[in-house]
Amino acid sequence: MKLKSVNNQMQLINLIDALLPQTQCTKCGYQGCKPYAEAIANGDAINKCPPGGEETINALAALLDRPVIALAEEHSPAQLAYIREAECIGCTKCIQACPVDAIVGAAKLMHTVIAAECTGCELCVAPCPVDCIDIISLPTKLVALTGDSAIAEGQRVTRQLRRDHARNRFEFRSTRLEREEKRRQQERQARLQQAAVTPTIQTFDPKQSVIDKVKSQQPTATALTAEQKKLKIEVAMVQVALNKAEKQLKQYNTPELQQQVANLKVKLAEAQQAFTSALTE
Ligand code: SF4
Ligand code: SF4
Ligand code: SF4
C-alpha cells in the first residue's frame, strides 16, 4: 500500500507495525514494536530496529516514501532463549520480564522456555540472578521473526503468521498487566477509603484510664496557687496521719484508736473536699 492511500493515523501505524519483527525487544528505544510504529508515524527515524535489519528499513522506506538509511545499530540475528534448568532456582524473574509469556514455571521450580513462543528478545537474560539463561541461534526448524534472515520465499507467510502471533501475545500480556495494575489501584483506593471512615479502635487500659483521669483533674504544680498548695499539703498530712493510725489500730485495736481513725477519715474527706473546691474556683 502507498502512503497517499492511507486514510488515517491508526491505519498508518498498523501498516508500519506489520513490517516490524514483533520480537518486542525494546532495542529501538520503545516499549515494543507498536510504540515504535507510532513513533515512526510521528516522524521518528526508520533505522532503529536491529532485529528488522536492512530488510525492514527498505520496507518502511517504501511504505513511507522516505530514503533508505543505514541501520543505527548492529543487526540482531534470529535467536532463542535457553534455560539451563539444573541451575534455575525458580525465582520467576524471567517470567516477569518476558514480553510474550514464553516462559513456564512456578516459584521455586525450574523454568523452561517455550521455543515456539520465544522471540529471542533477550529481555529475560539480565534479570536472571544466577545467569542460567543462554541466547542460542534459532533452530532451523523454526522460521525467524527477524529481517535479513535467509528464509525461503514460501516461508514469508509463515513468518508473518509468527509475527502476528507474537504481536497478539504481547498485546494480550499488556492488557492483562494493565488490568492487574488497575485492580491493584482500586484495592489500594478502597483500603484508603476504609481507613478514612473506620475510627481507630483503641483497647481499654483501666490503669491508663485512671492515670489520664487523675492527670486531667490535677493541674500541674506550677499552676497551683499558694492557697491550693496549702490545701494539698493538708490533704497529704491528714492522709499520712490516717495511715499511721490505721496501722496502730490493726496492731492494738483499742476504742480510742477506732475513734481516732474515724475522725481522721472525716478530716481527710473534708480536706479533699476543700482542695477539690479550691481547684475548681
Ligand atoms: S523488534 Fe525490537 S527494536 Fe524492532 S521495533 Fe520491535 S521492539 Fe523495536
Ligand atoms: S524467553 Fe526470553 S528471549 Fe524468549 S521471548 Fe521471553 S524474554 Fe524474550
Ligand atoms: S530468572 Fe533464572 S533462576 Fe530465575 S526462574 Fe528464570 S531462569 Fe530460573
How many individual helices? 8
Report the β-strand fraction as a percent range: under 5%
Uncertain parts = none
Rounded radius of gyration (Å): 42 Å
CATH domain fold name of the largest domain: Alpha-Beta Plaits
Number of domains: 3
Give me the count of strands.
4
Would you list the SSEs in sequence order as H and E? Answer: HHHEHEEEHHHH
Small-molecule binders here are:
iron/sulfur cluster
How is the largest sheet built, in terms of strand order? 1-4
* Overall pLDDT level: 89
* Biggest beta-sheet profile: 2 strands, antiparallel
Euclidean distance between termini CA atoms: 97 Å
User: What would you call the structural class?
Assistant: mainly alpha
General form: elongated
From the 3D coordinates, which CATH architecture of the largest domain would you assign?
2-Layer Sandwich
User: What is the percent of helical residues?
Assistant: 40-55%
Would you write up a description of this structure?
It is a single chain. The chain has 281 residues and is mainly α. The chain has helices at residues 9-19, 33-41, 53-64, 93-97, 155-197, 206-217, 226-252, 255-280; strands at 79-83, 103-104, 112-113, 133-137. The strands form two sheets. Strands 1-4 form a two-stranded antiparallel ribbon. A two-stranded antiparallel sheet has the order 2-3. The chain is elongated. The N and C termini lie far apart (97 Å). One iron/sulfur cluster binds next to loops.
